[in-house]
Design a protein that fits this description.
This protein has 67 residues and is mostly helical. The chain contains 3 helices and no strands. It is elongated, with a radius of gyration of 22 Å.
């Protein structure tokens, strides 16, 4: 899809500094991919209270079993 947008030059230059992209098109694709990845990542605070632990859970005992 072809789209014309106005992008802040300072922001664009800074993005190029932290990216390996060589073209504006590659930079935008990389930025959108990263944006989607970050938005899809589950916020750990949403899991509060959702994880149940065994009453007699002993992580030290499990470490001994693994060697």
């Amino acid at each position: 899809m072809r789209t014309n947008i106005v992008i802040d030059d300072k922001l664009l230059n800074e993005a190029f500094l932290v990216s390996s992209a060589k073209t504006k098109k590659d930079l935008i694709h990389e930025a959108l991919t990263e944006f989607i990845r970050l938005k899809k990542r589950k916020d750990l605070t949403e899991l509060a209270g959702a994880i149940g632990f065994y009453k007699n859970y002993d992580p030290k005992k499990l470490r001994k079993l693994r060697g």
